[in-house]
């Protein structure tokens, strides 16, 4: 994660935005006369929002944790998809 001031970020805007997209880099833009902002790739943002949605309810969090525990303990299996 990089922290750049507003002038640095703006000066190399294309390079900084490309780095955010290509390297999944998160950039904090600090501003002297305003609140700092975070710049991140849209796919990364969407992934975080999906995770927050999936873990919003206690029931779903418990179900997801049980599935992870099952996989970690080797009690899971794979199979081919049925297509017809």
From TrEMBL:
This is Antitoxin. InterPro entries: Antitoxin_Phd/YefM, phD/YefM_antitoxin, YefM-like_sf. It comes from the Bacteria. Belongs to the phD/YefM antitoxin family. Antitoxin component of a type II toxin-antitoxin (TA) system.
